[in-house]
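Notebook entry, structure prediction.
Reason for the run: the old model in the group folder had no record of what sequence produced it. Starting over properly, with the input documented here first.
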Amino acid sequence: MNGQNTQGAPLSDPTLVPRPEMCRLAMRVAPGGLDVVIVSRVNDNPLIWRHLPFADTDSDVNVKAFEEVVYDNRLLLADFAATDVIVDTRRFMAVPAERATEQTCEEIFDDLYPDDRDTEVIISPATDDAAIAACVPSALTAFIRRTFGVRARICHRMAPLCRFFSIKNRLGNTGKLHVHIADGRADIVALGRDGLLMANSFPYKSETDVLYYTIAAARELEFDNSTDRIIVSGDADIRDRLLPLLRKYVSYVMPMIFPSDIFKLGRDALNAPFELIAIPLLD
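New structure, fully documented this time:
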């Protein structure tokens, strides 16, 4: 699940979605561009996915570039039934649910980034026992609420991944370490009987980098090689090269088996950023 779909009718064409009030809009704002997924809530029509690159990229989210892309693609301003905005920033952390308050998270982020000002803490449920907190530019959250309404849900991109993987984890009693590979990074979500153990993201250049991070995480979390499992998803080329490497060290390694509902959403559902696809599956 890793592509760059810029083809098809432009998002400035209102006829592309005749009845937006029957559809869900989900967007991922990343340093390099905006990914958009539009999916019907009433039928099995294929979803619409577009990747809209930013003219000016940055190491973090470029608020001005995001604004310009939204105004250039007026369909995004239609009255959708629901709107979700995923923010792709490196400034995030997993927090136990009982400590996931705005004050507590602000204090932690202030210690981590003392020179960072004009930001807002966004806290999103990740599992039954944990949340993902992100430090997001205030200008970005203000634009989202001003443009898409106060009902637009804002979260960090790791939150829907954790929620989806935690639901899958309920089907068994073993611990699971999920490795999702996309966009040049490996997202590692570890779940045990007591809930979320780890949620982090690591850049990689090759499958050996992903192997290192995965094995290091398993050892740090005292992974039980006789019962626990590593489940790999995402970029098919890297995944297929990684699986045999992991099997040299771990007994139970397997590719992710996605629910059949994904295939009902059409071909683009297999290529769009999975955190965007997970949102309608979680409803």
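Summary: The first helix runs from residue 63 to 72.
The old model has been moved to the deprecated folder.
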